[in-house]
Amino acid sequence: MMRSLYTAATGMIAQQLQIDVTSNNIANVNTIGYKKGRAEFADLMYQTMQYAGAATSSTTMSPTGMDVGLGVRPTSIQKMFTQGNFKETGNDLDMVISGNGFFQIQMPDGTTAYSRNGSFKLDGNGTVVTSDGYPLIPQLVIPADSTKVSIAQDGTVSVLQAGQTALQQIGQIETASFVNPAGLHALGDNNYVNTTASGDAIVGVPGLEGRGGLRQGFVEMSNVQLVEEMTDLITGQRAYEANSKAILTSDEMLGIVNQLKK
Question: Which end of the chain lies in a sparser environment, N or C, as judged by fewer CB atoms within 10 Å?
Answer without folding.
Answer: C
